[in-house]
Design a protein that fits this description.
By secondary structure, this protein is an all-beta fold. It has one helix spanning 188-191; strands at 25-29, 38-41, 52-54, 60-63, 72-81, 84-95, 98-106, 112-130, 137-152, 164-176, 181-187, 219-224, 230-234, 239-243, 250-254, 262-264, 272-280, 283-290, 304-311, 316-324, 337-340, 346-349, 355-359, 365-370, 384-386.
């Protein structure tokens, strides 16, 4: 990938002056129980879509309105680059549930210092590792991309003269930011058969044309273990895959049609934001946002945040904690995130349910704020909570 350095944040153009920034309405804020920090959101699907940072009381600390141009912005969060705090975000266009755009690294003055073009928004995470040769820190970007390719889909009811339909091949890419070199590239079609999908070709993902290719996999997050292996989340197979960082082979599956593990008394489906919390070899602890719904298949329950422990040797998975929204009966068809905070609290972004909440380790909600009413089109792919150290014309830290 080509890396572009040092272009200004303001160079993306201006939004219409008639648009107003969304507000964050705080409904619950339990004094003494909430971890200090700021809320990072990228409201989408409503006027004023842009990256924002809000205080816990709902005041706007940073607004990207008028600075990011037209199009969607997702995944805005603090990140570490060159051993210093920066901001990361994705900007581009979204069609049929996936995106094409640029992953951007910005400094604290909100100038762009790195651009990774032509990528999807579902993952943009910077990971640090040590170069075994010289001991220097390597910054690696984990990225996703979606590409429509032709395949024989006649077994799935998509006949044609050549028996060729269109399907989306999801890619994981790891890019060394110092060189721009892709150091890992994994293809879903090379490793996951089409019949693992729980979402058959239909409507906007009908598979008969390139524009409406069948999204059989739908990659929703990527994380990397200390061993160099990767965790790849697919919401249309409802499976988490451990992928070898050496050859791309699948080491195990959690969930879905072919789970390596027995799930003990719980389930998840259509998940987002799978993260590694603790890796002790045969005992692996993960967090995820369980959507339990994807708009194509019937709901499997209410959305929730989950902490799961895997016993790799015994091939069992058990639920350690579950975090529910204060309002029952919601359907979060898209997006969602879970972030571990100090003292064991968690911050949850509810995706297409326009809320961000914080919960104590025992599951009690101690903070709840909305940026759109229930049933509105407001949406934030992920939500983050962290200190805000950006330098703006009105605020210097």
């Amino acid at each position: 990938m080509h890396l572009v350095s040092t272009i200004t944040w303001l160079s993306f153009g201006l939004l219409a002056a008639t648009q107003s920034p969304p507000t964050l309405t705080v409904e619950v804020n339990v004094e003494g129980a909430v971890i200090p920090g700021s809320v990072y959101l990228t409201p989408y699907g409503i006027p004023g879509a842009a990256p924002y940072v809000f205080s816990l009381t709902g005041s706007t600390l940073f607004s990207g309105l008028g600075k990011t141009g037209q199009g969607a912005v997702h995944n805005f969060h603090p990140c570490t680059y060159n051993k210093t705090e920066h901001f990361c975000l994705w900007k581009g266009t979204v069609t049929n549930g996936y995106g094409k755009g640029d992953a951007l690294v910005l400094n604290q003055q909100f100038s762009v210092v790195k651009t990774l073009p032509n990528v999807d928004f579902h993952e943009f995470k910077l990971k640090q590792s040590l170069n075994p040769t010289n001991g220097k820190v390597i910054d690696t970007a984990l990225l996703t991309s979606y590409t429509s390719v032709q395949r024989d889909l006649s077994a799935f009811g998509i006949p044609s003269e050549t028996s060729q339909g269109w399907v989306i091949d999801c890619h994981v890419r790891a890019v060394d930011l110092s060189t721009g070199r892709t150091v890992f590239d994994w293809s879903s079609l090379d490793h996951v058969p089409l019949n693992e999908s729980l979402v058959l070709p239909t409507g906007a993902i009908g598979g008969q044309t390139q524009q409406f290719a069948w999204d059989y996999f739908h990659m929703s997050s990527v994380d990397r273990l200390g061993s160099g292996d990767y965790l790849v989340s697919s919401r249309h197979t409802s499976t988490i895959y451990r992928v070898s960082g050496k050859d791309g082979s699948i080491i195990w599956r959690l969930g879905g049609k072919a789970s390596t593990f027995t799930l003990q008394g719980f389930k998840f489906s259509s998940q987002h934001d799978v993260r590694i919390i603790r890796d002790k070899g045969d005992i692996l602890t993960l967090s995820l946002f369980d959507n339990a719904y994807n708009s194509f298949t019937p709901p499997q329950g209410d959305p929730s945040g989950k902490i799961i422990e895997l016993n790799v040797a015994a091939k069992t998975a058990r639920l350690l904690r579950q975090y529910n929204h204060p309002q029952a009966g919601l359907q979060a068809s898209d997006g969602g995130s879970l972030m571990i905070l100090p003292k064991g609290n968690v911050c949850i972004g509810w995706g297409s349910v326009p809320y961000v909440t914080e919960h104590t380790p025992d599951g009690q909600p101690v903070y709840s704020a909305r940026f759109g009413g229930i049933g509105s089109s407001a949406f934030s792919y992920r939500a983050f909570k962290a200190p805000f150290r950006g330098i703006t014309p009105t605020r210097r830290v």
